[in-house]
Amino acid sequence: MAFVPVDAVGLEERAAALTTRSIKRHAKVAGLRLAIACMDLTTLEGKDTPERVSRLCRKAIAPDSEDPSLPSVAAVCVYSTLVPAAKAALLGSGVRIAAVATAFPSGLVPLEVKIEETRAAVAYGADEIDMVIDRGAFLSGRYGRVAEEISLVKEACGAARLKVILETGELETYDNIRRASWLAMDAGADFIKTSTGKVSPAATLPVAVAMLQAAVDYESRTGRRVGLKVAGGIRTAKQALHYLVAVKEIGGEDHLTPEFFRIGASSLLNDVLMQLAKERSGHYQADDYFTKD
Q1: How far apart are the C-alpha atoms of 142 and 31, rounded to whole Å?
Q2: Tens digit of pLDDT for each residue in 16-30?
Q3: Contact predicate 180/226, CB 8 Å
């Protein structure tokens, strides 16, 4: 397929326009509940422990003990060695386990190591794998190598779904982001994901719009729907609503589901819970009212 360059000015204007949409109160509440249902609640720190992961999993299952009507999050995302702790804590809940793999966040290890880590994470019990592409290979034009790695990692996933992290903050241009999105989808990605959250800038609305449009175009051409995960720097309920608006307007209602849209989040959930509590009671709870993990 001939590559279609991205109109950067038009893309950024479109993204800016999406932030001006007026959202009525009932739609806002529904949107915030959907944001929770689409979250990958995440901890990816060197100081992570099985106990910390277990606490995070309890919050993933029941985000707010004061409101049992709230949905669970879509998944908990952890390092592969902590998948067993997450599996034990999430047993019977329906919350999925996502594991970062392939030498997250750099992706700079031999291919056989990436494949072995992926297989190990799945064997531990991961339902989803979040892999990183080799940005150096991509930026130097070695697209075939990047595609081959994605394809082999996808094979190693077995029944687990594969999210391919582009690390858009390092890809430099919207053209590169569209090209990398298409390459990942062609190689078998179930989701394309913006960022590791370890590089700035991470997720931005224009980047998400570019990736969404690539996914819509890919589905139109191939008939296969690929999801989008935005991650890194999404900390407020307002930001989350902007992304939901973008998904609805570009992808349509069918994309507005945890099966095809995720928000990678660590601190976002508490802000969403604060906004929902305010809608219920008319006033904000203190930030420390909600548990941090």
Answers
A1: 40
A2: 999 999 889 889 999
A3: no
154 token code pair: 């996808």
Decide: 84 and 125 in contact? Cβ < 8 Å.
yes
Please choose, from the candidates 128, 108, 17, the residue with its C-alpha nearest in 3D space to the C-alpha of residue 118: 128
Residue 142 has pLDDT above 90, yes or no: yes
The answer to whether residues 260 and 161 touch, using CB atoms and an 8 Å cutoff, is: no
Residue 98's φ and ψ, nearest 5 degrees, are -110, 140
- Kindly list the domain boundaries of the chain, sorted by start residue: 25-281
> Among all chains, which residue has been given the structure tokens 């219920």?
280
- What are the tens digits of pLDDT across the range 119-136? 999 999 999 999 999 999
pTM tops 0.90, yes or no: yes
Residue 231, SS3 per DSSP: strand
Q: What residues act catalytically?
A: 130, 193, 229
Give me the pLDDT at residue 286, please: 58
* DSSP output for 33-98: HHHHHTEEEE---TT--HHHHHHHHHHHH-S-TT-TTSPPPSEEEEEGGGHHHHHHHHTTS--EEE
What are 230-284's pLDDT values in tens digits? 999 999 999 999 999 999 999 999 999 999 999 999 899 999 999 999 988 766 6
Architecture of domain 25-281 in CATH? Alpha-Beta Barrel (3.20)
